Amino acid sequence: MDTTIDFNTPPANPAEIVARFKAVAKENADNKAAIERAVADFGQKLRVNEQAIALAKMREVTPTGTGDFSKYVGTKGAILKSAKDTVTFAGQQVTVEREGLFTDRPENEWHHELIRLGATRSVARAVRGIGNTPELDARILAHVAKAPAAGGFRDAIEKSISDTASSGAEWIPDVPLNALYEEFYLKTAVSDLFSVTQIPGPVIIPTIVDNGRPYLKGKASSNDPSQYTASELTSGSNTIDPPGFAMRFLIDDSAAESAIFALMPEVARRAARAINDGYEDACINGDTTATHEDTIASWNIRSRWGSSGLGGAADHRRGFKGLRRISVDRSSTTDMGSTQTTAGILTLVSSMGEIGAARVALVTSPEVYLKKLLALAEVITVDKMGPMATVLTGQLANFAGHPLIVTRWVGADLAATGLYTATGALSGMLAVATDQFGTWRVRSTTVEQDKDITRGAYNVVATSRQGLYTQSSSTSKVVAWGYNWLS
Asked: How far is CA 305 from the centre of its chain?
């Protein structure tokens, strides 16, 4: 049975199209395959019809006509794109919406080609990210020379095409791309090394130091033998009270409505990223002592935090002690200015004592990784590493069995002391016993959005409450800091 729709006889109206389609569907209700063919045929005919209409609109020009370009001259000059204009009607001033030379349907072949060239030029500038397109400019100017001269139109269009301030630049529509450029960003990785413990709020963790030791058992040679020698258990506790982190963006509601991409979801993503960046920075460079070990009032590490608000009481690097500070507190630091070698790295790990035999990760900066580690004699050549040689792969995921983590939060602007003092171009490496640390979290990163209708703005706020802590004793070398790299 024939289930196609006859488009040779045009329907009177859209309702008749629907009626025909329903009739065919009803007639073939028991034939699913036939209905699918009818649907496909209908869709194909409809698409062809729509394309024909669209092309017809573009081709509605008068090849031999001169066109009416007087309508593109407004009270304030030429109208090159859609704009509101004031005209006098029946003795009164009224505002009307008028199409421009670049946005209206073409008047003739000359107008059609001008629109095409203008669009090509705008796209080229947007894609290439530059303000100069000399070849396209020359083609447009040559085409403008053929513009109708009546009423001074040629002079007006030539002025507009010059695209300079106050000479037409404001009239030519530019084409923005629905894309957002982003600077290179090295994703956070250090915080992922540690386990996460969810807690309801501040908690007290009991601790115990095992000092018990055995002695040789004496013999009972009298009626009152000596007691066994006693040992002591040292108890204690640690209080875990993670700090809260918060950041806020204020976005004008008009900007959110007019953006050429989905602005608010992107802002929310950036807010969450800021919280995560701040936490990872604190994991490396945090310090809760009264005077931070680094000069954080001027430390805008890798230009991430801007120049205002640094070093104050609310600086995120004051939330808890980071790995570098813990190393200093436990006298677990090593000057590696002259030992930036495989042996030197193993010495750094061995400075942790027996803990160095545990799960130890190496954390360093991109500069140390690229300039020093990839060039170590033990890993760079094929005769030493075979197909895994860094000269071939450009990668080094492990070193001597230890995971190698590259993070932007180990700076390359440190002094020879391993601290940030506002002068210096050195870096360092951390050896961390990952099972001796953990993230204690009350609340993970949460992003909230609310509109302030009294100000016409959105508040986008991201918060979290978490901190990096170790339950080890104050003398346990669970992390080691090797400084003075790149010297």
From this structure: 15
Q: Is 230 a member of any domain?
A: no
Per-residue pLDDT, 397: 84
Which of 59, 84, 112 is the last residue before a domain boundary?
59
Task: Please say whether the beta carbons of 467 and 446 come within 8 A.
Answer: no
Residues 47 and 129 in one domain: no
More confident residue, 387 or 230: 230
User: Is 223 within the bounds of a domain?
Assistant: no
Pairing of strands 427-433, 457-469: unpaired
Is there a single domain that holds both residue 363 and residue 464? yes
Q: Whole-angstrom Cα distance, residue 407 to residue 75? A: 60
User: How many Å apart are CA 69 and CA 61, to the nearest integer?
Assistant: 13
DSSP tag of 302: G
Query: How does pLDDT run across 193-218, given as a tens digit for each residue?
Result: 999 999 999 999 887 777 788 888 87
Q: Are the beta carbons of 424 and 485 closer than 8 angstroms?
A: no
One-letter-per-residue 3-state SS of 108-119: CHHHHHHHHHHH
Inside any domain, residue 194:
no
Q: How far is CA 323 from CA 104, 168, 283, 297, 445, in A?
A: 64, 59, 6, 20, 22
Chain segment 90-145, per-residue pLDDT in tens: 667 777 676 777 777 777 777 778 777 776 666 565 544 455 667 777 777 777 77
Tokens linked to 297? 């009032």
